[in-house]
Amino acid sequence: MVINLSEQHSLVSNWVSELRDTSIQADRMRFRRNLERIAEVIGYEISKTMPWKETEVTTPLGISSSKLLQEQPVLATILRAGLPMHNGLLNYFDKADNAFLSAYRKHNPDGSFEISMQYMSCPDIDSRILIISDPMLATGSSLVKSIQYLKSEGNIKDLHIVCAIACSVGIEFVRRAEPTATIWCGDIDEELTAKGYIVPGLGDAGDLAFGAKVQN
Q: Which residue of 87, 98, 134, 190 has the lowest C-beta tally within 10 Å?
């Protein structure tokens, strides 16, 4: 399933517009906060799909019947660009366990690239709900490889993918690899360049959030 939150107007489409706007992108704090807010809204929507239990809560004046989550998810993200969205999800799933991965494009002289994985830290994910965030779903290669690494640690019960902007090419790649996953997008673009960048996209989310990096 693919859910595009910009199909109908909401604050999400406003925040996505600000992420794309070159006149606003110079404000790094605002850029990070917009990513965070998009993830917060998606986290709220994901919570509606999760199993819950009826629980009695004692108040100062009596007993209240409440619907509470049966279990907490595992939140995962790909360093470094995914940190603002991860933080947005953690604001809502504040009791969640967390996983972190390092995946990047290792470029070759001919312009092609490979996905290099250098780090993973995760809790027990066997039979758990996994929510993985990455602001840009371009080719989908790094995302799929990260999910495969996580799956090597245990069987994931339900998989949710959270991104600010996705490309239709990357979505199809992910759906082939993970057909049961639910993909949540702030918006979807159709074009992907030969070098794997989304058009119109928004540029390099990691650089816009945290500053330009030296690319070795």
A: 190
User: What pLDDT score was predicted for residue 105?
Assistant: 63
Burial of 61 (0-12, 13-18, 19+ CB in 10 A): exposed
The torsion angles phi and psi of 210, rounded to 5 degrees, stand at -130, 0
Give the model confidence (pLDDT) of 137-188 as tens digits: 999 988 999 999 899 889 999 999 999 999 999 999 999 999 999 999 999 9
Alpha carbons 17 and 213: distance in angstroms, whole number: 24
What integer pLDDT is reported at residue 214 of this predicted model? 77
Rg from Cα positions in the chain: 18
- Residue 18 DSSP symbol: H
Q: Where are the domains of the chain?
A: 2-50+69-105+113-210
Q: Which residue is associated with the tokens 């019947």?
A: 65
Residue 209 burial (10 A CB sphere; 0-12, 13-18, 19+): buried
State how far the Cα of 178 lies from the Cα of 144, in Å rounded to an integer. 8
Rounded to whole angstroms, the Cα distance separating 188 from 192 reads 11
Q: How confident is the model at residue 213 (pLDDT cuts 50, 70, 90)?
A: confident
Distances (CA, A) of 166 to 7, 55, 82, 125, 194: 13, 38, 14, 25, 16
Judged by DSSP in three states, 60 sits in: coil
Could you please state the CATH topology (level 3) that the domain comprising 2-50+69-105+113-210 is classified under.
Rossmann fold (3.40.50)
State the Cα–Cα distance between residues 98 and 89, nearest whole angstrom. 11
